[in-house]
Design brief:
five-stranded antiparallel sheet, 501 residues, 29% helix, alpha+beta
Length: 501
């Protein structure tokens, strides 16, 4: 495989190492278990179908440029099925990939600075953030540079390459906690305080959250931690986890169990001990010059002959909001099941280039956010999105169901999340049309209890399970109710209600 000269040296090393490990595995030099551990940290994930892989593309805080979206589409067309799957962790997955093709896929993605490194495995997974960060009218400041710096700091960091289990980090743009820090291993919510007339930026910090079969609510560690201390603190936490995390019983190996079993006070004492060994006691984060992307210019009319109907007004009410930058609007795009064809992705890229800023964000509920749209261009944007089937109203409403791929491709799934989601969305649209305006009732579906669809954080959650009758086992769905964030801003996990076949 020829590796282009403009790819950084560490990436060249990654690609050659992946090539060599694939050869070693196929010739029996290394075992399947050891190869699995290696390939997962390179974004190569086993699929339910034998002989093909799922490739998870790491998209820190969900930020995509137009050129990156086009490059991912090119790769999917060449090596996969022409479908892109947006995940609840703001990644993009492509399926049905041949193992031998993965080094070349990675090389092509790196041409637009896109990586597979540590998208899976026992590493720091994709650092997520509120999609509206940077344009959120209620944010104290933009958390994007902080999410970016933390993601880059721990990428290929030696202490994160062989941890007990994965670690998930999230940054919310405000106290509204739209990034769901409360169920993350480490979470940050921005804060500002005034001392001696000076504004000081910092974060509320939580640790030890998690979903899965045993969900844990993250615990508050700091009500305010100065901005230049968040990376040293995170590194100390990860050092403790790497040193003390459970390595025998996989189901007990997450950070949430280490915090719970030691107690927060004892765990933080271990963190303090680790701080003495850190290279950086403070790590200032550069926030200036963090470009949002090229702003659009010019006013464009809707497509010729387009008559804007009441649906346009509904779309504006449910999918559009004014940014903190006056005169510009953020526009959410619903993507059914998080699946978009490369054909439509290319058309979307062209629309963004014309009508929005070059800063597309993948949302945590498997959609897109476009930024810096002029109010005068909303009719044109709606018209062009409608032409490619991406102008569905009701973003993040009861109609907008979040779901993992389920048994379509996942080895662990018990039930088919995708078919259930499609059926429910059809029922909601036909029988409960007014719920398109309801944003306080969310439905989330997972194919198993591992909660990739985040069902435990839903007002109405469903996860794949099974019923046993003698020697017979049938797939079933477990219903959970009451999750999410209440009107007072308090987070809750859903409780089990009933299991149905």
């Amino acid at each position: 495989m020829e590796i282009q000269e403009n790819i950084k040296s560490e990436v060249k090393k990654d690609l050659l190492e992946l090539e060599n490990k694939i050869t070693a595995f196929k010739t029996g030099v290394i075992s399947e278990d050891k190869f699995k551990q290696f390939r997962l940290t390179r974004g190569v994930y086993g699929q339910r179908q034998v002989g093909v892989q799922m490739i998870r593309i790491k998209i820190p805080y969900g930020k995509l440029t137009v050129n990156q979206l086009l490059k991912i589409s090119d790769v999917s067309d060449e090596f996969s099925t022409g479908n892109l799957h947006l995940t609840t962790r703001q990644d993009i997955q492509i399926h049905y990939v041949k193992l031998d093709d993965t080094p070349l896929i990675w090389a092509k993605l790196e041409e637009e600075e896109i990586t597979l490194r540590e998208a899976c495995g026992n590493t720091v997974r994709n650092v997520t953030a509120s999609a509206i960060a940077g344009i959120d009218p209620s944010e104290p400041f933009d958390v994007t540079p902080y999410a970016h710096s933390l993601a880059q700091y721990f990428l290929r960091n030696p202490i994160t390459q062989d941890m007990a289990r994965k670690v998930k980090v999230a940054f919310s743009s405000s106290e509204n906690d739209s990034a769901f820090t409360y169920f993350h291993d480490i979470g940050f919510i921005p804060k500002v305080k005034i001392e001696n007339g000076n504004e000081i930026k910092g974060f509320k910090v939580v640790i030890g959250g998690g979903l899965g079969a045993q969900p844990f609510m993250a615990k508050v560690v700091y009500d305010f931690l100065e901005e230049d201390l968040i990376i040293p603190f995170s590194e100390a936490v990860l050092r403790v986890f790497d040193r003390h995390g459970e390595r025998t019983k996989r189901f007990k190996a997450r950070l949430k169990f280490l915090v719970h079993e030691n107690g927060l006070e004892k765990f933080l004492a271990l963190v303090e001990k680790e701080k003495a060994a850190l290279k950086y006691q403070k790590f200032p984060i550069e926030t200036k010059g963090f470009v949002q992307g090229k702003f659009p210019s010019g006013i464009f009319p809707p497509a010729q002959g387009e008559n804007l109907t009441s649906h346009f007004e509904t779309w504006v009410k449910t999918n559009v909001f004014e940014q903190k930058q006056k005169g510009y609007f953020g526009v959410f795009i619903r993507v059914l099941l998080g699946n978009i064809s490369t054909k439509d992705a290319r058309k979307l890229a062209a629309i963004v280039k014309k009508l929005a800023g070059d800063d597309i964000r993948i949302t945590v509920n498997q959609g897109f956010l476009l930024k810096f749209v002029l109010k005068e261009n909303l009719p044109a944007l709606y018209s062009e999105l409608k032409n490619i089937g991406l102008a569905e109203a009701g973003f993040d409403s009861t109609h907008d169901i979040t779901a993992c791929p389920g048994s379509d491709t996942c080895n662990l799934a018990v039930t088919n999340s995708t078919s259930l989601t499609q059926a429910l969305e059809t029922v909601l649209k036909n029988e409960y049309p007014d719920l398109i305006y309801e944003t306080n009732i969310k439905i989330k579906i997972s194919g198993c209890m591992n909660a990739c669809g985040q069902h435990i954080a839903a007002n109405i959650g469903i996860h794949g399970s099974s019923l046993k009758n003698g020697i017979n086992i049938a797939p079933a769905s477990q219903i959970v109710l009451g999750g999410g964030i209440d009107p007072d801003g308090q987070p809750h996990f859903a409780d089990k209600v009933i299991k149905i076949p």
